[in-house]
Design a protein that fits this description.
494 residues, 9-stranded mixed sheet, 5-stranded parallel sheet
């Protein structure tokens, strides 16, 4: 019994030493230089507002895929709290997956912090739990802390979004506010590289579409991760960086450990197949036949990959914009286009894969907004010929199409619209659709084609503008910059 007490005392000493190591502002008055010097994500201000909001008794749960800057953004938020004269020893940061914290409850960690700095129960404190998903039943304990310590602002974060998203909603109802941090948008990519002003004019349009396209291809190849832009070694070894530090950790460790997947390598192979075919229509039956994996297993894999922010799906409607009762066909998109290049090599401007990647890039700008919940693709047959429209947005009731978008990595749609846009024109004309646009490689303008007014706009510029809409909120009254129609409310972030 005496030995057990000694072990507990040693553990507490080691925990407090680790606290000091991970919270340098207690002595230095500021966070580590590498966090201070890192560019801020465009989502930072929205996240910080939630962190600083102390009147509402809710924990902030920061979610997103690996390596998109969650830990950096937390430390930048801490730095701003320090700049706002919050006492340094009123802020605690804990990376929960640190071995010394294993099997220690969240409240015990908090109490050790309060004891270390003689902080009373009603003191105004800020407590950050990073990588919280590895603590069993974290959501139950975090909710209890929110209820028990109304004067403390709790922030939790993690990369295994599948568990975070599910548990924050099920067990944290009324006590958690989810905030999603996606991969870099194209606009953020340009800012991180310091070339936005060089490529974009005051009206948010390209100064030189060819130069913007060059940057767009760079974005498709390595643009989703801040480190790949800021650190040359990472950029030069994207295959190893993504394969080992992101894909392997998510697919071989995070998701299997959270969901008890028996064959992680099978999940990894399945994801690699989806990545290669990003933007293509698939069905569960076809995937099962080609992969020799049971259909029920594939359905679960898709759910896990979506919840982990690796892929998203668009479902199919017919030529009359009717949804199917059984969604047997769908398109799967990477939420971060550069994952394909990391697995299969970089693409050039004339590669066959560019069409699917350009489409993937646009979808990924929407991927963490509620707009995508109302977005489908249309596919049907007319006299035995397959017709398709890449993206169709329905109204909230899901009854009426309000916008159609066709995505091309070529200018042929401008030059030969009647041949290249048959399905698109048929769909828009049949629905008397006013919100229609065709994205091109370089061309812009508009034409009246078979009674349908068709605006044209370069896809790279479209990705930039859609990205700044959801993050910066600088565009006119929430309207689509090309169709003039309202966006569905609710963007990325909270």
């Amino acid at each position: 019994m005496i030995e057990i007490d000694i072990m507990k005392q040693i553990t507490e000493i080691e925990v407090k030493k680790r606290f000091a190591l991970n919270n340098p502002w207690w002595e230095e008055g500021e966070v580590d230089k590498r966090f201070r010097d890192w560019p801020r994500r465009a989502y930072f201000d929205g996240f910080y507002r939630l962190v600083a909001e102390t009147k509402v008794r809710r924990a902030v749960v920061l979610m997103g895929p690996r390596r998109v800057g969650k830990t950096v953004m937390i430390h930048q938020a801490i730095q701003r709290l320090l700049d706002k004269k919050v006492p340094p020893r009123n802020i605690l940061y804990i990376s929960v997956d640190t071995p010394v914290y294993t099997d220690i409850r969240l409240e015990k960690l908090l109490n050790l912090f309060q004891e270390l700095h003689s902080r009373r129960r009603n003191a105004r404190l800020y407590v950050f739990y990073d990588e919280i998903q590895y603590l069993p039943d974290w959501e139950v304990h975090l909710k209890s802390l929110v209820d028990s310590y109304p004067s403390i602002r709790f922030v939790a974060s993690g990369s295994a979004a599948a568990a975070l998203k599910l548990k924050s909603r099920e067990s944290g109802a009324g006590r958690f506010t989810d905030f999603i941090l996606p991969p870099l948008t194209f606009a953020e990519f340009l800012r991180f590289r310091g070339i936005e002003d060089e490529l974009i004019d005051q009206d948010k349009l390209p100064k030189n579409i060819h130069a913007l396209n060059d940057a767009f291809i760079d974005y498709l190849n390595f643009g989703g991760f801040p480190e790949a832009i800021m650190e040359g070694e990472v950029r030069n070894r994207m295959d190893l960086y993504v394969a080992e530090d992101i894909i392997d950790k998510v697919l071989l460790r995070d998701v299997p450990s959270l969901y008890g997947i028996a064959d992680p390598q099978e999940l990894k192979r399945f994801f690699a197949t989806l990545a290669y075919n990003t933007g293509q229509e698939v069905s569960i039956n076809e995937l099962s036949q080609s992969s020799q994996v049971a259909k029920n297993t594939l359905k679960k894999y898709l759910e896990y990959l979506e919840a982990a922010f690796l892929v998203c799906r668009l479902y199919r409607i017919d030529g009359k914009a009717r949804r199917f009762k059984k969604q047997t066909h769908f398109k799967v998109y990477l939420t971060n286009p550069c994952l394909r290049a990391a697995l299969y090599g970089a693409v050039g401007p004339d590669d066959e894969a560019m069409g699917g990647l350009a489409e993937t890039a646009l979808v990924s700008q929407y991927a963490h907004s509620r707009t995508l919940d109302y977005t489908y693709y249309a596919r049907w047959k007319n006299q035995g010929v397959v017709r398709e429209v890449d993206m169709v947005t329905l109204d909230r009731a899901g009854q009426r199409p309000i916008a159609a978008e066709e995505i091309k990595w070529s200018d042929r749609a401008c030059e030969e619209p009647k041949n290249e846009l048959k399905g698109f024109l048929e769909f828009c004309r049949g629905k008397n659709l006013k919100g229609a646009i065709v994205y091109t490689r370089t061309k812009s303008g508009h034409s009246m084609i078979n009674g349908v007014r068709v605006p044209f706009h370069p896809i790279a510029s479209a990705c930039y503008i859609v990205g700044i809409f959801f993050v910066d909120r600088i565009l006119d009254a929430g309207k689509h910059p090309f169709t003039g129609l309202p966006f569905i409310e609710g963007g990325a972030g909270a």
